[in-house]
Amino acid sequence: MIGLNRFAHDSLTLNEGYGIDGFRSSELKGTSRFLFSVQTQSYAPYEWIGFRFGPFINLTLGILSDEVTGFTDRKVYAQIGLGVIIKNDYLVFNTFQLSVSFYPVMPGGEPGEFKFNSYRTSDFGFGDFDVGKPATVYYR
């Protein structure tokens, strides 16, 4: 009974916010999780009536294991996404995003699934720098 109770409190998931964005499954649980996520962000060198575009591609791979089998013979769940960040400094809501994600492997043997705007990204941009005479920067 103690082992089951401990598993209930220590269980991990790949659901949105804890692993793969846009992924939801109530049946996938484990005690260990491996997650790999990579994204490339680019910025188009042109604009169209004030709109600037920043296309991106992302890939996320996740796998869950338990104490008995480890990571062997476990399915790898993935998300492959394409999108674009659209920015216009003249609008009140100056940045928005469009994206599509594909999930090739779903729990329970279900076929792959497409979702729109399931992935959220941030436009890192450049920081605002003041030009002026040098001054001491204090650590807080």
In short:
By secondary structure, the chain is mostly beta strands. The protein contains one helix and six strands.
Taking all Cα atoms into account, the compactness measure Rg is 21 Å
Structurally, the number of domains stands at 1
Number of strand segments: 6
Principal-axis shape: extended
Instruction: Report the end-to-end length measured between terminal Cα atoms.
Output: 49 Å
Measured as a percent range, the helix fraction is under 10%
The SSE order reads: HEEEEEE
Question: How is the biggest beta sheet arranged?
Answer: 6 strands, antiparallel
Percent of residues in beta strands: 35-45%
Rounded mean pLDDT is 76
| Low-confidence runs | 1-9
Account of the 3D structure:
The structure is a single chain. This protein has 140 residues and is mainly β. The chain has one domain. It contains 1 helix and 6 strands, in the order H-E-E-E-E-E-E. Strand 4 and strand 5 form a beta hairpin. The longest helix is centred in the first third of the chain and has 9 residues. The chain starts with a helix and ends in a 24-residue tail after the last strand. The N terminus is likely disordered.
